[in-house]
Fold each of these.
Amino acid sequence: MECVHCRGRMERSVTRFTAERRGYHVSWDAVPAWVCSQCGEAYFETGEVETIQRALSAIDHETERMCPAA
């Protein structure tokens, strides 16, 4: 697999994922991904993306319960 940014070689590894959402910050330190050995660009497979989206959705829901809009 080749990096679309620099044409470096992609290797299966882990990388950090962060998100700024609706008044909170989420950070995971070791999410499985394809990471470019040359520039460090990361690509997540569908399963990881779906897991991240489910987790963020759950946090959104709990945040709305904790801090309802006025």
Amino acid sequence: MKFLFLVATLILSLADAQEGMLKESRYEFVRSSIGKGKPYFLEVGAESCRTCKSMSKMLYQMTQKYPNYNIHFINVAFDRETAYALNVRMIPTQIIYDKAGKEVFRNIGALSQERVESLFEEFGFKEE
């Protein structure tokens, strides 16, 4: 009985840890959508990275504030080919693509919420 209680507690704590985190997007889906009239913000990282988790929580809040923005988390921990395709050397890395699909911004490391919001303005993210 104690064992079942411990397992249930562990499962619930893991679920809580993921709550408020930006959900993982498959790069194949995102890649097929880039360049089709809307800018994209990619957060490239891994769930095991502490800084990536902080960025994920902040970006999750941004998706709540701006639900129509294309903000995606690409988890490269299990997909090294995607990291290679995106030329990611360190995580977290943020990449912004403009409406035409051209990479217009890249950053390695964490960004503040204020900086992310200024990037949204600078690169034409708009609520529709």
